[in-house]
Amino acid sequence: xxxxxxxxxxxxxxxxxxxxxxxxxxxxxxxxxxxxxxxxxxxxxxxxxxxxxxxxxxxxxxxxxxxxxxxxxxxxxxxxxxxxxxxxxxxxxxxxxxxxxxxxxxxxxxxxxxxxxxxxxxxxxxxxxxxxxxxxxxxxxxxxxxxxxxxxxxxxxxxxxxxxxxxxxxxxxxxxxxxxxxxxxxxxxxxxxxxxxxxxxxxxxxxxxxxxxxxxxxxxxxxxxxxxxxxxxxxxxxxxxxxxxxxxxxxxxxxxxxxxxxxxxxxxxxxxxxxxxxxxxxxxxxxxxxxxxxxxxxxxxxxxxxxxxxxxxxxxxxxxxxxxxxxxxxxxxxxxxxxxxxxxxxxxxxxxxxxxxxxxxxxxxxxxxxxxxxxxxxxxxxxxxxxxxxxxxxxxxxxxxxxxxxxxxxxxxxxxxxxxxxxxxxxxxxxxxxxxxxxxxxxxxxxxxxxxxxxxxxx
Length: 459
Fold this sequence. Notes:
By secondary structure, the chain is an all-alpha fold. The radius of gyration is 22 Å and the shape is globular. The protein has helices at 2-44, 47-71, 74-83, 87-113, 115-121, 126-139, 143-158, 163-185, 195-219, 238-274, 277-313, 317-344, 346-350, 362-394, 399-423, 427-456. The two termini are 20 Å apart.
């Protein structure tokens, strides 16, 4: 009977994880399609544009990932409150999350607005930085709604109702593609804005997605009891202060973990820029492709956080362990499938970005194909580490994963990348093998950490 019960529990958990993970992964894929579509359309404007615009997109994405990492604390906190049957607490958590999105977003908009100067300080070429600055100024106003959207997405996920998120994101992405085309090429009587038009289209898309989700939640009676848009005249109450600091207590290490991982990729992007436009363009294409496949694993990781958080709120620690292992396994499987595509059809992937028959693109195409082979190798490691971190986040264990990430990405990954790339003269290919080694280290240690944490929880 226990074997049948265990099999039944496993099948049930897989179904519940997929119920959350499929729409969340699809939403992540659709949302990341903004950057993907931007990069593809940058390629239509030439290799110099894709190198410069990709650099600006890397900076925007890095800052967005770190800050949405901080705000992702809303998800496990709201999920545990949902598991405990406390709707009033959920509303307070979400309201604080929206307030924090403004608190974080306003100064970062100013940083992005002056991103060209920042890129110069980071050692990038003057021409590349100037062109990237036009993209950053256009997309900077979209940063705050992107953070607000992340909070609302966490709210719906915590309630196991993420399906609307995918509808909103898909429609927003279709809008972004259309606006990109109109603004960059100057259709419908508008001036051709080139790279600036791509950034402006993304801003319009991010605002439309946030407003659509906010209006829907506000108009639905089933969400009324959470009162997430209720104005509080006595905002800084002791309870609100406690929730405010708890979001930062849980979220800052999450943002820190995202920073050390995304920071590794961002630093490698800047290093690739020093190797020339060919290396930078190849790196940007391979990185954007890997980022697209990563969104599947990230969606599963978000679902794992919710499932682990809900079960922890119910004090069901036996199924907490099951939920974590199911999420890690599904994430690894999804990334293995992506890795097979990278390994078998690299030129088909590159053809999405560049004309592979154009002689002027041959060096970029050849180097990108080599990088995609490396990406195929580290896909499984990337899937395991992000899902394991998501499972730990559901237990509100975020500080140690951040320290693990610092060691794996910056001590192991970056040092290895630098040695292979420069000392052993493998160039950008060596940089990517360093990334793979860092991700492998993180996957092993984070999985071990979840095993220890889940095993120590009372049954």
